[in-house]
Amino acid sequence: MTTTFPRLLLEHAAKRPDAAALREKVYGIWQTTTWAELALLVRRLACGLHAAGLGPGDHVVIVGENRPRLYAAMLAAQSLGAVPVPLYQDAAAPEYRYPIDNAEVGYAFVEDQEQVDKLLEVRAECPRLQRIWFDDPRGLRNYSEPGVDSIDALVAAGRAHDESNARLFDAEVARCQPADVAAMFFTSGTTGNPKGVVHTHATLIDRARAGQAFDHLTEREEVLAYMPLAWIGQNIFSYAQWLVCGYVVNCPESPATVTIDLKEIGPTYYFAPPRVFEGLLTSVMIRMEDAGRIKRWLFKRCMDLARRVGPALMDDKPMGMLPRLAYALGDLAIYGPLRNSLGFSRVRIAYTAGEAIGPDLFTFYRSIGINLKQLYGSTETAVFVCLQPDHEVRADTVGVPIAGVEIQVSASGEILVKSPGLLKEYYKNPQATAEVLSADGWYHTGDAGFIDAAGHLKIIDRAKDVGQLLDGSMFAPKYVENKLKFFPYIKEAVAHGDRRERCCAFVNIDFEAVGNWAERRNLAYAGYTDLAAKPEVVELIRDCVEKVNADLAQDALLAGSQISRFLVLHKELDADDGELTRTRKVRRGYIAEKYQVLVDALYAGKTAQYIETAVKFEDGRSGSVAATIKLVDAKTFPTVKAAA
To answer: What beta strand segments (E) does 452-518 contain?
Structure first.
């Protein structure tokens, strides 16, 4: 049954030639590519690549937003036995040097002029990179760089090559085997250089099929592809499962139109990391702050009811007639319009993964009738390890192992996984491969957790991040950070406390949410740094921190992680400044080192600390941001003892 991605494409084109495979929004209008049209495009691109010298085992970089012709380029490369290597489109040019050099890349497909310019910038240091093809020609008419050409030109060359070598494409597809390498994904690199995770057709397709069977996915699903293709989560949902299931993948016009496009498409199958759900909730809360008094009162009453009743109804638990009727009225007045406003009216299954999601945030979406579930996996496991079955969804677990997966918990509490979806290797890094893959086939995830009595996996934190305070109590920074990030006013948080006497935290405000809050109070500000330093904003964040502390006090295991002191950072944490990965994971060690003076000031009991920080602007210029930051004490609470 195992096959390859190009063969799956040809099967869909043979069985359903006129069915929609991809849609792309161009100048406000959705354009459809059928399976037959896609198969023809892939054939011509593959023939063009063959004529350009691409062969089995060669690496092809893919950089850009989700675009049908970039998907076709991946399929064309795989048809010849070559390996697509998607990279993050928002990365700065220097970030491309290592993966391009490490993977010995000679060919690249990019979306537009911005990506062409970045690759040309690094080409002098990556001499193997000879050919670059672009999708969008705007701004590139007068470029005369050698080896740079349009995808249209490659298609034309491929058509001619196909006409003179009619059997070439079919022979190349037939030669490709399931055990061949299908793609390479570079990890986010929270510590050191990113590692190239090598996956075969067999590993990716096996996990895509396991996910398909688990949630009964069909060709009738609609998916919106708006996260980077370089993130394996998006790649599995909009590429691997797309080719396995044959559903429709929709590509937004631009990142700025995603919210509108979401409403127009009405996806049935949705996937996003927690930060996207956090952002959507923040936009809802901002709108409610601007609503009239009666509407705010109605929203609060209905949401209180939803939190009590909604998750139980979604899990088909017994419920009295009166709560059901009250919820139905709330659905008519609030929940239904809210789902529609978010673009989730047709969602049958929504998943979140990539990092832990706050329980309050998770409960909010399930309360309003969105079947949001958590999954557990990683780049190295081809995503699908544990999924939450319908009617067994809990905020504190990530589900049960799915078909083909075995899980063990080591004596140290680390989760070990055995699965058909495990990576083949880290590219050119046998030492790192040996560190995570044991001789008997177990993958060391680096996550700390346990399996509960119901067979569900619980994740505590990254094993390397879980620590202890000096009094011996557990310190789980990600858990604390997620609780802070539930508040719409907090965008990012970094908790400190391992081997220290107490927990302290850095907080990034959400500029849009806090700006809206300030404007309604006639509080003038000149930018992020000015707003973050306002005494009123610091008090707003203190209130959020103390609510988190009151919540942590209810948990005997983590009550010691209450935040005793905090500060509001003078700048947003940014991937361009090395503080976040491209998937917006906090690089905690780097931040602690970069802002050591602030960490020391928090623990020294200072009330203020001056700091000047180097930053990179979007246009590539460098500069600095300086501020005197207020260091604030927060109220902590006695641990609430469980009833006997």
So the answer is: 457-462, 467-468, 474-475, 490-496, 503-509
Which segments within 187-298 are labelled E, that is strand? 196-200, 222-224, 248-251, 269-272
* Count of other CB atoms within 10 angstroms of residue 323: 14
Q: Which residue do the tokens 């290592």 mark? A: 98
Q: Is the dihedral of CA 93, 94, 97, 99 positive or negative?
A: negative
Per-residue pLDDT, 641: 65
What is residue 435's predicted lDDT score, i.e. its pLDDT? 94
- Close Cβ partners of 170 (under 8 Å, ≥ 6 residues apart): none
| Reported pTM | 0.85
Please state, in angstroms and rounded to a whole number, the distance separating the CA atoms of residues 570 and 611: 9
pLDDT tens-digit series, residues 382-433: 999 999 999 899 888 899 999 999 999 998 889 999 999 999 999 999 999 9
Fold adopted by 467-633: GMP Synthetase; Chain A, domain 3 (3.30.300)
Structure-token match 């929203």, residue found: 299
> Is the CATH number 3.50.50.60 carried by domain 397-463?
no
Domain boundaries along the sequence of the chain: 5-272, 273-370, 397-463, 467-633
Give the C-alpha distances (Å, rounded to integers) separating 251 from 113, 183, 591.
19, 21, 34
pLDDT score of 222: 97
What architecture is domain 5-272? 3-Layer(aba) Sandwich (3.40)
For the chain, which residues score pLDDT lower than 50? Answer: 643-644
CA-based end-to-end distance of the chain: 55
What pLDDT score does 644 carry?
39
pLDDT at site 142: 87
